[in-house]
Specification:
This protein is α/β, with parallel strands linked by helices and 286 residues long. It is 44% helix and 10% strand. The two termini are 40 Å apart.
Amino acid sequence: MKDIQLKQHSVMVIGEGKLADSIAACLQEKHALSRCTSAVNLPLSIAEELIIIITADHLEQKVDWINGIQERIHRDALLAINLEAISLQALQEKVSYPEQLLGLNWVYPADTTFFLEIIRNKSTREGADLLVHRLAKQFWNKDPYVVHAGFSIRARMFAAMVREAFYLVEHQYADIQSVDRACRNDAGFYLPFAGNFRYMDLMGPYAYGVVMKELNPELSQERQLPNFFQQLLAKGALGMAHDEGFYSYGDGEAARWKTLFAKFSKEIQEIIQRYPFTREDLTEKS
């Protein structure tokens, strides 16, 4: 594969919303950046060598956008698109040049957080994931990882946690505030320091094995969304932007939460940087 020197060349971010905006903010000082809010208003020819796409998690929309973009770019370009429930293979089977595709998952605010998930499979162009990994570490201030299986591991772990939380609330074992407090005040303290496996090493894996052996058969295996959540969506309670979600928000409250979250994100970034993930970085810091 052509070794694209993307630091000297340009990147295009396609998508709308706060995640796409924060990705553009993350990259704007590192690359010559182009910005489009959708695949509808694209230029006839796209010279950028990395195109980052953010869409809703709908297969048809992703395929339509990719096919429209691939008509406008050169064959050496890379397309990096967010993937949650959809696999990379499902997209590759429906587009003209499957080797151009990578999955690339971010978390908001992308200009502050260290998260970046790079997804590839056997059909992805050789070296594409390594190139994006190098860019992420050198220029985007990310701590990236590569998934070779062609799907998002972040999405699966999050979905498993939310499914159990939904089960507990639906069956009245806990209310929403109790679930949030359990997450914030337990995992919220150790996850910025260590992932789950390192934390189990720290505490002793044996105890977790005993608990999981007994508890795993009792965990939720639901395949449908719970009734309370479907009702919430049906009445338009779509989160802070609509003044109601799992909680209700008064006038100006959503804006205050947004400001607080931005402040918290910068502060937690500084803390995480003081306690790096790898042994080599830890040695340098200590």
